[in-house]
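Data card: per-record layout.
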Amino acid sequence: MTESEHLREEIKELDAQIFRLKGSMNKADNAVKLKKLEVITRLRDRCKTALQALERRQAAA
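The structure for this 61-residue chain is written out next.
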């Protein structure tokens, strides 16, 4: 697998985790889940940024 494929796979898994976490949130116990959601979202966003940079480098080459 290429680096791009790995990043796409990781982004897909992080999106799935975010979806599951949002679906499991109750009104009473959101503090811990909100923190986890923030962390996973930041990680996904970093992966997306890395993928875009990688694709720009490949297009320039």
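Known properties of this structure: Helices lie at 3-23, 30-60. The CA atoms of residues 4 and 55 lie 8 Å apart.

See the next section for split statistics.
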